[in-house]
Amino acid sequence: MNRRRSSPADAHHDHDAHHGHPHDEAGGHHHGHDHAHGPGPGFPSLGSRPGIYLVSPSGAVPDPEVIARAREHLKAQGFHPVADRGALVRHERFAGTDDQRLAALARAITQKHPIVMATRGGYGLSRLLPRIDWKAMADSGKRFVGHSDFTFFQLALLASTGAVSYAGPMAAFDFGGKRVDDLTAAMFGETLRGELEILSFESEGSDPVDCRGILWGGNLAVLVSLLGTPYFPRTRGILFLEDVNEHPYRVERMLVQLAQAGVLARQKAIVLGSFTDYKLTPHDAGYDLGSVVRWLRREVRIPVVTGLPFGHVKTKATLPVGAKIGLATEAGMAYLVFPHGH
């Protein structure tokens, strides 16, 4: 996996030269993404030592020390992390009651720090969706970051307002251990600062593609559970997916549902990240995740790209959900071209 940080001028030129794209807001191959809330204004510059507000909208944080370590690691990366006063609250399996977690999200958009990062995933955000003021979330101009259960928030925000958020690291999982993955930390910082324009990764056997579209997606199980609700985006773009603890047949079953609902056929491409922590059995008789990918290619007849460094894994990219990006494959490599300047 490679990242390219370059000047605003030659990021687009490089991509055009290799893939023939006209100049537009998605031309360039780096960790860049629009900070625009759909048609609204772009995000302001972060400046030096930007603040990160840590909030717990889903599952309870089991060990407060993890958040303390996360704050230290984020400080070492040049950020100023501050934990919401409810970040360590516990009610049953949740980080507080529904009212407490809603109040934490409300505080997150009125405090001064520009980045709002989820401490962890788990379960709990779906219960809150009808009670969240999505316009206020979008209008706040905050850069919301997380993955896993936080996919609920990101997709609902996109469906309700068109605002861009970030699928990326979380405090506990990615910054709360004894060591932090260097690439994850670097891509997070570069993306949030608008410095990363191109992300390239190995993608052997991927379908040929050279397109532009709105990047959207996240956790597959979360995304599928939103079908039929007002919080499912009606996006025709580039769909990225990942999951954890889901056997390949369950992954396929969810993809079948998306296909039969007409969602997959509307996309310009499907990009698959990591599907981890499942166990095969003798009954599978050779059926594995590769079987699912082969079925998917036969079924959808649109480009399928594999190898995206994203999911419940230590090394993960930070991706702009709702931004228009470029996607291309060439010679066993895939390239995500993010819009310049965030």
Automatic annotation (TrEMBL):
Signal peptide: none annotated. Residues 1-49 are annotated as: Disordered. It holds the Pfam family Peptidase_S66C. Residues 10-28 have a biased composition (Basic and acidic residues). The keyword Protease applies. Keywords: Carboxypeptidase, Hydrolase, Protease, Serine protease. Residues 52-168 form the LD-carboxypeptidase N-terminal domain. This is LD-carboxypeptidase. It comes from Pigmentiphaga daeguensis.
